[in-house]
Amino acid sequence: MTDFRTPRSRAQGLGAAGHGVSHWISERVSSVALIPLVLWGVFAVLRLARSDYDMAVAWLASPVNAVLLALLAVVSLMHMHSGMRVVVEDYIHRRITKTGLLLLNLFVCALFGALALFSILKVALSGGAY
Amino acid sequence: MSDVSKTIRARPTSPHVQVWRWHLTAITSIMHRITGVALYGGTLILAGWTIALAFGPEAYATYMGLLGSPLGKLVMFGLSFAVFFHLAKGVQHLIWDTGLALKVRAANAGAVATLAFALVATVVVWIIAAMTGAL
Predict the structure, then answer these.
(1) Which of A70, A118, B16, B87 minimizes the number of CB atoms within 10 Å of its CB?
(2) Predicted model pTM
(3) Do A83 and B40 touch (CB under 8 A)?
(4) What pLDDT digit, counting tens, does each position of A6-25 carry?
(5) Which residues contact B78 (CB under 8 A, 6 or more apart)?
(6) A87 with B33: CB under 8 angstroms?
């Protein structure tokens, strides 16, 4: 069978869509990372649900809690950005609407990621002083 | 060539959900997507918690008051089910990605296990919450 692909295109392995399987792989990698992070997150929520402000600040001042919460937030936001992107691409076919929703999805995830990271660092490093 | 070529019949379409018998793998697949979208909101609620904490005691008390209200608890209950369902179904998908458990019997068993795990884990977590005074 004749192969019309150039040697370079074969070597790059990016396929017709131009980005190869990176999106598919990043979904799997983030989902594997989220299995332990989410289980830890459930126990964290159970503990924090009966914490007042000072207890919550003290909890977040622990390096382990601060880092795991930051990882949970960032990996969740990456994972849900991938997932919502697929949902939009599946159901929205009008180009302008689709582009707008994909941008909104990206901006919401990036904004909340930045806000969450800054907030976690502020509380963890300052001990809640504001 | 006869008249047949002039008659344009509607092209055959594949069966849709209205005429398909519902089966567990389809239901759990749809629920996987619905719970994923619900968890989009759940993650924003988690991010909102860190922001409220960084804003100080009053903002934190207001935010915890919202989460502890009857509506807040209902949302948290739904999110806890969504977490465990999406987690279990996600694990089934990761197993499928390795090429295993794709036969009908194994896929159905995985769907049953997913539902069972999600229901049991949700109930257990809320019993723990009630016993530790987190409600």
Answers:
(1) B16
(2) 0.88
(3) yes
(4) 888 888 888 777 777 888 99
(5) B38
(6) yes
